[in-house]
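User: two proteins, same treatment. go.

Assistant:
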Amino acid sequence: MRSAIYPGSFDPVTLGHWDLIQRAAKLVDRLVVAVLHNPAKTPAFTVEERAAMLEELTTSLPNVEITTFHGLLVDFAKAQNAQFIVRGVRAFSDFEYEFQMALMNRKLAPELETVFLMPKEKYSAVSSRLVREIGTMGGNLSELVPEALRERVARRLAK
């Protein structure tokens, strides 16, 4: 069974994330979308809320599992019996950072492969950080956040 981990903060889930989940789910038998506990950040949504939103989105994808994790990604991937780590790359600046992370992950766990996926072009400028900024100012999230989550995300960010 080919298993992959798609890790991230998903704070909040964007259309770019959703695009990558759907693409990655086609490539493997089992895709684990893993929400990272990151104590260094002050999130807009709790880890549990982000996982619940991802659960809601992925109900139509039977090979996708949603979970949370903390600690080293390679340790989590090994515990999940994953062979691949999926990372999204929107721009060259993303690639530089992700390339360094992939090399370090390879050093820590040479049996894991990192697969880079690009979202559709229309999502290449969409990031959770920008969604949070736009949402806190009452901006339109219709081209940024999946429709099923849009109202919930807009309400939270407007507070």
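Protein 2:
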Amino acid sequence: MLKRYLTVRPEGETEIDIKRSRFISYVKRVETPEEAVTFIQGIKKKHWDATHNCSAYIVGEHDQHQKMDDDGEPSGTAGKPILEVIKKKGLKDTAIVVTRYFGGIKLGAGGLIRAYGKSASAGVRATGVVERILTRGHHFAFDYTHWGKVENELNAHGYQVLNVEYLDRVTVTVGEEEGKEEPLTSLMINLTSGQVEWTPGDLAYIERLQEAEDDIDLEEDE
């Protein structure tokens, strides 16, 4: 499992107009090639009357599954720029479909590359990018007398408190990136004078929304 990577939020869409043509971008997080294909086919079925439904996806821990489709546009002018946007933004497990309704003005090869690249990029921006961080929940049990200080120090150090249980003792669950738990455990030992029980929990990804980047404008020779 990757310790951290970038992907899109679950799903999103947006629409832009370029020289009277409508470009509708659909973006979805996918975890298998089959899921990507199902998503693409669903958009094609929804927009069966569109001039083109062009697409691309990257799936896999090592980006091992990649595919693009020009869907009738001149070769290399649609699927490739969509795929390039996914790559240049460093995204994994991402599928994009750009649906085009032709508006009567031909864009030429260079214009198509820029249009599909701009549409894909706008779709990603509208959907949002997240960083997924592999995190383990650490359970710490200690006496109530330590809780006030522990709570203040965890907040001061920016730790993510996932859960607190108030039973015969306080049990707090703190999320920390896998492999970086030593400072956390040392802090908890110091705060409780060693009177703490530590139990490592399960691994799970947490997500942090990233700031929106400028849209990518692809050139004709890409």
